[in-house]
């Protein structure tokens, strides 16, 4: 089986080395055939299995959509916009669900917008709708009114009317990194995948088994750009508190700064770990994200914090996405040397 690697990751490389069951897939955690290759002066390798890649239509290395070269979350948002209904890639929240999804055949089971971008005709149709929307907007000069009545279009206009005070009450916005077994994460770049956050925590605490296998231990809401993690024991949580780099805000609050890829996720204790507090409606999540941006700005306004966190949200993956807008297409490798 040929790996699904995008042109940006692969470069001109055609020589790949294969390691059967060489690693655990970052999404489904099953062992998979890893491909290594040298491109752009460094060794690159596949991090998710072929089936997970097919289900989401993403590159096995960079996890960007294979067709559009953008993060899955952004792809789904664009499609939600033009279809007027929510398109989302819901990742498994627990081990059982993970197994359940992993068993599905990626050829027929597509998650979120993968059903569109993995099909040539559906992609053509979507592109036409995007073009029509843009043209209509240009013609009328009023982007929001001219477009189809998508949920996002109307919602962004009315975001001011969305009330999220109940959500904000449940979130530790004034909290610090102090104790407890659960934590609130924010300033999560949309291009940072859940597995990357899980990986970063795993590396800090030195074991992948920090998660409770029977209850939800990780919730990430990419629209609100925040989430939560919960450790199965106080010892593991304490190890996390000790290991995660900390910074002080201007108000003197100590917060954690979890480094994931090139972005810095802010961390505070969250005794009331609660999925519903991250918002359920799309508009709530959007507004929550905007509110949290203000908290991030406050966090970073301290001279001490600014020194160690110069730029907010400058993910490597994001850069990749923007550099590839010149319509680089997925190339299924045809010439594999083993
Ligand atoms: Zn997988
Ligand atoms: Zn790639």
Compose a concise summary of this entry:
The protein is of the alpha+beta class and 338 residues long.
Give an overview in words:
Helix content is 38%, strand content 15%. The protein is an alpha+beta fold and 338 residues long. It has a domain at 165-318: Alpha-Beta Plaits (2-Layer Sandwich), CATH 3.30.70. The two termini are 12 Å apart. It binds zinc ion (2 copies). One zinc ion (ZN) binds at residues 25, 27-28, 30, 48-49, 51-52. One zinc ion (ZN) binds at residues 5-6, 8-9, 59, 61-62, 64.
Along the chain, the helix and strand elements come as HEEEHHHHHHHHEHEEHEEEHHH
Distance between the termini: 12 Å
Taking the sheet with the most strands, its summary is: 6 strands, antiparallel
How many beta-strand elements? 9
By secondary-structure content and strand pairing, the structural class works out as: alpha+beta
What is the alpha-carbon Rg in Å? 21 Å
Adjacency order of strands in the biggest sheet = 5-6-4-9-8-7
SS summary, helix count = 14
Mean pLDDT score: 83
Q: Which cofactor or ligand species appear?
A: zinc ion
Reported CATH architecture of the domain at 165-318: 2-Layer Sandwich
CATH topology (level 3) name of the domain at 165-318: Alpha-Beta Plaits
Q: Tell me the name of the CATH class of the domain at 165-318.
A: Alpha Beta
Classify the helix fraction into a percent range.
25-40%
Proportion of beta-strand residues: 15-25%
